[in-house]
Amino acid sequence: MSRLSVWIMILCLGLAGCGGDKEKTPTAQSEGGQSATDSKVPVADAEDGTKAGQGATENMAGNHTTTSNPPGDKADPGTPGAEGSDRPEDAAALDMPLEKRDSLTGNWVLTLTQQGHNLPLLLVHLQTMEPGKVEARLIETTELLMEPELGKAELKDGLLSLPFKFEQGEANFQGQLVDGLVRGNLSLDGQGSVPARLHGTSADSVASVEQKEAEGLDQLIEALGSEDRVEALSSFVEKFPFSPLSLIAGEQLLSLGRDAEAIDAEAFARVREDYLKLSATWGPRMKAEAEESAERTTMLRDAISGEGEASEKAVARLKELQKESPFDPVIVWALATAAEKAGNTDQAIEQYGMLTALPMMQRMLMQELGPETPLPAEKLSELWEKKHGNTDDLDAYLNKAFAQGLHTLVEGEEPVPPRAADEGNRIALVELFTGAQCPPCVAADLATGALEHLYQQSEAIVVRYHQHIPGPDPLTTADTEARLFYYEAQGTPTIRVNGREFEGSAGGFLAQAPGVLEQLQEQITPILTSRTEVKLNLQASLSDGTVKISASATGLPEDSERLRLRLILAEQSISFRAGNGIRQHEMVVRQMPGGAEGIKPADGKLQTEQTVNVDELREELKAYLTKFEEEFGADFPVKPLDLNRLTVVALVQDHVTKEVLQSTAYSLAPPAGDEQPATESPAAEKPAPAKPEAEKPAADKPAAEEKPAEKKPEGDKPAADDKPEAEKKPETADDKPAADEN
Question: What is the value of pTM for the model shown?
Fold first, then answer.
């Protein structure tokens, strides 16, 4: 995990997803993670060969690399914060009165350097007792830390430890008093450490303290943009040995050492040794992590060198590590590079294919390795054309690679067998609110996809409501926006399980997907063992391009006025390369027949009959997207409007508590061989696996006779009709996490 990832985790206490000011115009993200403000925002796929991480500030924040002459074992003389200090970077760390300290007694402000700025996090009072003991009292925190609780402070062999508990996890500061400053590191849930400091201060409040630009930021940016980065970064560390940014400079140098052509063996040995010395100035925990990083870099260097026994051993070890961490982009890249140098074209294609097909893999790789590294997508294209003579089938291959990546999440797990009749009758309805431009939605998208492979629809139903969050999404509809508004959700990803809030963090990238899947399974297990008196009878048919739906609910409680019967028309599988790298989208909500507000009980009965003309729905969706383009300056080069594999979902929901009492699904997919041709996007290589239908009457499903979707030219923009009524339409929001994939 890169320093940038850890720093973001510490500040945000886990990836919450995409949200923000609802008044902002929806925009696509730029490469650096901020919103683009172009008048026309293209919303095609982001896997177009654009290199991520080319900006100097982004590289400064996230890449690993080292030094020719970092500081030695002993700290330079000088007192932080004192007049005439030899450490200007310490004195300039905060815009508040700092004091020289020769003991731990007094007020201290804890600061963390993140994305080039020193952030004051909290104010704590320390009181030294008898030798080797200290008491700590939390005085005040900033909003960033969301009301932490301070645990028992410890002082052992001069190492101060301050544990904190948050709602989302635990953090721990470790540091040592040297020349009046407690320099150390902060760790969140033991998932890596970042440099942190305690500054002595006479202030009794941290609320008014403003963040300040980190010492040496401009010089580091200049060094990162230098033609001779090795020399420039080494000089930076010599000039700012005690700035947290020096550790980033050291990581950059170590990273450059992966390439034997950039740094020779003798120079790399010095870089490695100096990096370990540099890390040791921030505490033993950071030194231990640096040792692991150095070992990893050495192994990668040996593997991609392709030279002799050392390379063979390194490649073998990397293959073992890949089994443990299949989504580690650097491991995959090293294996691809080694295979290419060894002339193993098929193996190289397989590894480069993973980096290109799996969401966020290529982007994360480029952030870590830097812009000078060739794009895996480019390498894959070259090797594919060399082997096949053209790239005609490359996109189909990437679709298969994406599907295989999804299966990796459930490897070793057997599908959950259907329940016995006496084990429970409630079905778990998993509703995911996601966005094609939302990078931290990747974990939730893949986890829910894996859930569909493990559970039949008689056990768990998954539906996805797309949103224009953080940027325009051609799979969004007025009904999906209204559904988000109903739940009063603030952003994406958001998960609801039978209407209840998801107990856990849904946001994250590939590496977090297994954790989200595990939390989902934990939450739906008790649902599957529970029973309800509510029963749903759902019948649906598709004939001559018209979907007819009949749904009714029985076994309702006496107080049923708050109940609503809601219908969902979902497209089973859509092939569309989204900006966040998701290539295949399953069970995408296209409409809520009868309205997003649902059907109210009438005369004590809860029932409805609805008719949906598929061609008319296609035109409604196209008109909605066209109007969105005109109103918000968006541009959808691709509008996936096939609507050729449909499923109807019915649910009974308490309109006030939002609890879903029961749900069921009915598939309207055409028979094998009758699928319609794709109109505006490539057909899926691997359709979603068929799932048994819940409570489906066997005799009431006529053969599908859906009409082929019309093929319309890109420039055909009909007049924008008013959007379907949706009570109130939630406005879009910009997000702040990393930008679009690949």
Answer: 0.72
